[in-house]
Write a structure and sequence with these properties.
Layout: H1 3-23, H2 43-51, E1 57-61, H3 68-82, E2 99-104, H4 107-119, E3 135-141, E4 149-155, E5 161-168, E6 183-187, H5 192-200, E7 208-213, H6 221-229
Parallel strand pairs: 1-7, 2-5, 2-6, 6-7
Antiparallel strand pairs: 3-4, 4-5
Length: 232
């Protein structure tokens, strides 16, 4: 191989490594100060984050494809799990490791949407919003659902380890009983009994409830609760 070919091969190798690292540190490039995706263009997202200082329960109820799951629920959940708050962050902060739940409609949709947003591909963990270097060990798997994670440990910047567990509404209210949590993220609208049970897990920690959904079922109890809260 001549020197020019060697240089091209080395450049290709470096570019591949740069791409690999970029895919595993997506969190760090969210909501930049400048550019096409600058946070100034997302005032409702910023307002949602700020509201966490005063409000335990928050909901991003909006149309599909506006960034509810990835840019709101997933993003904030990962900040709390890792402690990697950006300098501009004006929302709630935890200065210690947390325990969190993330949930969706079914085991399959939780795997395909919520888990994917946080972890990326099951055979390439770290390509989601959680930086690859912050995933501690191998996540435990959920029985009966191929490729689904049950719980995972996440490195927190304080030096400790956060825990994230996955649930689904089709498991029923009783599966949301148990230990206290600091954050619960419910992606897609939950049944009222599941919501109330999950909310109970936050009482002793002054934890945060994050809801992200499109109100496809109309004026349900949960949708009405949040709409009434803003006086609409």
């Amino acid at each position: 191989m001549n020197s020019r070919s060697e240089a091209k091969a080395e450049l290709a190798k470096l570019l591949a490594e740069k791409q690999r690292r970029a895919e595993r540190t997506k969190l760090l490039r969210m909501y930049p100060e400048t550019g096409a995706l600058r946070r100034q263009l997302y005032p409702k997202h910023m307002a949602f984050f700020r509201a966490g200082v005063e409000h335990q329960e928050r909901c991003m109820m909006a149309a599909n494809r506006v960034g509810k799951t990835y840019g709101v629920g997933g993003y904030e959940t990962v900040l709390h799990l890792t402690g990697r708050y950006p300098d501009w962050w004006e929302g709630r902060r935890f200065d210690h490791p947390i325990e969190a739940w993330a949930a969706g409609d079914t085991g399959e949709t939780t795997r395909d949407i919520v888990q994917s947003v946080l972890f990326g591909k099951i055979d390439d963990l770290g390509t989601g919003l959680i930086p690859a270097d912050d995933i501690v060990g191998e996540p435990s798997r959920r029985a009966g659902i191929t490729g689904a994670i049950d719980t995972a440990a996440i490195r927190h910047r304080s030096g400790g380890t956060s825990l994230i567990g996955f649930k689904s509404y089709d498991q029923g209210r009783k599966k949301f009983q148990g230990t206290a949590k600091h954050v619960v993220w419910l992606d897609e609208e939950p049944p009222a009994d599941v919501y109330q049970e999950a909310l109970m897990r936050l009482m002793t920690t002054s934890g945060l409830m994050l809801c992200t959904f499109t109100p496809l079922e109309g004026m349900t109890d949960i949708a009405a609760q949040f709409i009434a809260a803003i006086g609409v």
